[in-house]
Amino acid sequence: MVKIFVITYSTYGHINKVAESIVEGLKAVAGVEVGRYQIAETLSQEILTKMHAPPKPDLPIIQASDLPEADAYMFGFPTRYGTTPAQVKAFFDSTGQLWAKQALAGKPAGLFFSTASQHGGQEVTVMSSLPILAHHGIIYVPFGYANAHLFDNSEVIGGSAWGAGTIAGGDGSRQPSPKELEIAKAQGESFAKVATKLAA
Prior knowledge:
36% helix, single chain, Flavodoxin-like domain-containing protein, six-stranded parallel beta sheet, Flavoprotein-like_sf, NAD(P)H dehydrogenase (quinone) activity, globular, FMN binding, FMN_Rdtase-like_dom, alpha/beta, Rossmann fold
């Protein structure tokens, strides 16, 4: 069995919704075991309440020490000015001991993301995350244009060759669309096939 961890940080739930389809795609490939985790929140409940953030899902909090257990990773998070949220950065900042041992080297990872607007930095968010993967020796696996919805210009659709994505809207009211979720499922399946080949 190839063990793949799907690790997310989500303030308003959009990324967690996309992650459900990612997991569905991963599980469509034989020989894959999926672990589902979330990154710890660093904001206080007082601040989250003022932000009108919903309660966090009932998922285990990922610890740096958990990462070596997996053969591959899919990370999902929203963009913050074209880069990772502080919570995600704080998590990766805790992986120094793993980096020193190159404990994650050679393992593949895929990324998926959300932004408020169409031009909110989905692709640059991935690009700004690549140095983290490179320093760990983690192999970044892009999605490519492996789903026809990525060519659809008839409506707003998140995602790109870099990975699945959703557009949340400025007030967070827009939820992942059926086409965005289909893209996410396709990415999960595509990534699982790559991960199983590398594990072999």
